[in-house]
Amino acid sequence: MYGTEQVISGTIIAGPELIPIEGYICVRNGIITEVGEECTRSKNIIAPCFVNAHTHLGDSVCKDPLLGKTSGFRIQRDLDSLVKPPDGLKHRILRETSYKILVEHIRRSLLDMIETGTCAFADFREGGLVGVAALNKALEGLELHSLIFGRPTEPQLPLEVVLAEVRRILLHSDGLGISGANDLEMELLQGITACTRDRKKLFAIHAGEKDRSDIENALSLEPDLLIHLTQATEKDLNEVAQAEIPVVVCPRSNFVTGVGMAPIAEMLETGIRVAAGTDNVMLNSVNMFAEMEFMSKVFSIDDRQVFKICTLNGSFVMGPDSASSIEKGNKANLMILNGSSNNLAGIQDPVGGITKRARPDDILAVLHS
């Protein structure tokens, strides 16, 4: 009820450094009004919600694709055949999917996000203005903070025709999200970037996913956000850090498509601001617990840093309101976990325990502001 104060007790993963403290949180009108330390018998663990900083939710219409050709006992995966526009598998499926079905399946993924502790997401929306409209429709009535990056449907058309569509898309989205600098003519990319800047919207682009051949051109566009950088060299990372461009990594997706693993530890050492996303729904669920566990067990990164990448670092992409640390005055985007569940009972380090083994069924409640 409006104006009612809610008090939650337990072990709190508090502040920007995610330090566990035993105590309580007071929440009024979606804002944290107090964080106090005191002894409590509660086994709850109170943590910031996830930010899924890179998704393709249109893929929700195809959750079990044939990933490639079978050769002996191995599946050969080809990233381009799966996702490259205009004729990758997902683009062919999207062309054959009705608007009604698209909205229905996107909404199911959005509901899955809420149920699995995510409070904010950034989506690269295929399908032009219709694709953006489908996501906006699916979001109606849901408590999720979103960034929607649209893209033109037929970039092979004359430049002015494409830019006219881009301007329409920008009226209904937060910016433009492009598949890669090798997929469009540089003149068109520069025009798209200029349109986006003129309207004070965001420009994001995939780069360095299967090789590094598109990184230089992507950086020349001065994007607000880069996705993947799986094949980035030390020189590339230094340039990204100098330009202060956040990077979203998608480890499970990169593993499934066989393009390698992003140099996350090196990114962090270079000073790059790193967030994480689940990428294509056709390849992975939107479950950020799975993304976090995978990252913690594959990469040589401290658990606290992994947890921060999947939660608070989303503010580098989404803005500060989307990924608030648990502090007085911040928005209450919280998930309350059952620390006495069969899965979590007995963990000694709440941050490490959540990072390595927590699951959606450990969630008792989620608060979104």
TrEMBL record:
Pfam family, one: Amidohydro_1
Assigned EC number: 3.5.4.26
SUPFAM superfamilies xref list: Metallo-dependent hydrolases
Keywords recorded for this protein, A-Z: Hydrolase
Domain Amidohydrolase-related as annotated: residue spans: 45-342
Protein's UniProt keywords contain Hydrolase: yes
Lineage top rank: taxon: Archaea
Database matches in InterPro entries: Amidohydro-rel (IPR006680), Metal-dep_hydrolase_composite (IPR011059), Metal_Hydrolase (IPR032466), MTA/SAH_deaminase (IPR050287)
Protein name (database record): Pyrimidine deaminase archaeal predicted
